Request: fold
Amino acid sequence: MNQEAIIEIKGLKKSFNGKEVLKNINLTVRKGENVVVLGKSGQGKSVTIKCIAGLLDQDEGDCLVFGREVKEMDDQELKGLRSKLGFLFQGAALYDSMTVRENLAFPLKKVLKIKDRKEIRERSLEVLEAVGLADAIDKMPSDLSGGMRKRLGLARTLIVRPEIMLYDEPTTGLDTITSKEISYLMLEMQKRYKTTSLIITHDIPCAELTADRILVLNEGEIIAEGTYDELYHSDDEFIRSFFK
Amino acid sequence: MGEQGIFLRSFFRNLLREEFEFEEFARQSYTIGFRSIGICALTGFILGIVLTLQSQPTLKEFGAESYIPSMVSVSIIREIGPVIIALICAGKIASSIGAELGSMNVTEQIDAMEVSGANPVSFLVVPRILACTLMIPLLTIFADAMALVGGFTAAALSGDMTIKLYFTKAISSLAFSDVFPAFIKSIMFGFSIGFVGCFIGFNSNKGTESVGLAANSSVVTASIWIIVIDAIVVQVTNSLIYS
Ligand SMILES: Nc1ncnc2c1ncn2[C@@H]1O[C@H](COP(=O)(O)OP(=O)(O)O)[C@@H](O)[C@H]1O
Ligand SMILES: [Mg+2]
Reply:
């Protein structure tokens, strides 16, 4: 593991209205790695990745992506970072008022400033086929099932070929079989597009499938770190309790 | 107030610096105008009728029936038309903008846009505010015209008024100082409706109940702005004209 660190978080603190949500987060994600952050609901997992994407600013500590502090980036730099970053939101965050096709074209037109319709169509079809949704291209997001919405959300982030993928609970709210499918899809996309991923979840099968390394977040701190097997056989009862 | 100032600044900065989303502006203008044209026409028409019927007996008493067209046109165009149409649009348009952006906020669509590197202010906010600023004055002009038609209908049914006489009188009694401030006022109303709806929707909380709250408080806030702006414009116009 001598790869360069892509994401580096040190001593991250964040409070909302006097309530300390993140107390001391330390984590590193290296190039090509799949790191899973496990934790119960409301422990600050989403807050952590929102700091990485620059949607929230931390109160204290460092949050470096490609070696640069996110909080200190100006608009232009942040835009540059975001074009290399894919963010799959918990609810997929599809644009409700647009068709599947328009959802996919949006980042191409607005971010990469691609005007060529043929290129837009080809790239849209390519990612849709990759996530197995080619038939749905003219549907509205409201006509898609939960699993399909996640797939489309994934396709929409992958279409700009990001170097880093941030997944916020990619399998939450899906049935077990669909969860597995999404987890396999994430692995496949990781191989195909060579992304570095940070995956936030409390879904153990998803973590088992996708993780090179797992961190456990509890009460605003990382309390354990290791491979799936290491944590599964941990001495700490609380950590083992995740795997039951 | 401070947050609104920041939002206002970000609106102008995006308006001036970012690429203008013409397609989105056209789409919003169409939706906003089209969705409200029926209710504005109906309101204008009925206002014209009511105003005529109500003033008829009094004016008749003084033998001043021929003043009806002037009275209707001056009072509608100067005051009643812009304010009533703006209040109706606050109920219809500000609420739907507040709810729409509020629900985009709750479902993290705005975050998704931002994190993809696109600019949600220039894509969502600028076109909506500009569309309101354009469409609400147009709807007001249309409703004013319908009010004159309504006024004529009532006058013709209850007396012998020809259409030519009615409209000649209605229009000749209008001065620049009646029309111009009213027009400026409705531009300001339009801007306020778009701005309030966008501001509240964009900054709503992330709970599901916040969509309804955003819609509701958009209407209330926009209505208050309209009434306050109206009062200020009247003061300013009076002091400019009569001093
Ligand atoms: N924008 C915000 N404003 C205020 N409180 C927030 C905000 N975002 C998150 N929180 C609070 O931070 C805590 C952790 O939230 P979150 O990171 O979403 O948890 P999870 O680990 O389930 O993703 C919650 O108590 C939540 O209420
Ligand atoms: Mg979360």
Notes: Residues 94-153 of chain A form one domain. The radius of gyration of chain A is 18 Å.
